[in-house]
Amino acid sequence: MKDANKQNRVPRIVTCPKCGADVEWVAENRYRPFCSARCKGVDFVAWATDGYRIEATEEPHPEDQSE
Ligand SMILES: [Zn+2]
Q: I need a labelling partner for 36 at 20 to 30 A (CA). Which of 19, 22, 30, 55 fits?
């Protein structure tokens, strides 16, 4: 019964980079390494919020033209 090994496998636990919560590194967690969509989407919320100046991230990168 080789399948028995799979059931004994413990998912890897990582730490959410945003809030520090424990996150199971499993396939069904599409937000990994974040714990939730809210943590993963924090940047999106930030630039979508009035007051956040997206221009600050529009700096040109000379290295992008190296191709
Ligand atoms: Zn989190």
A: 55
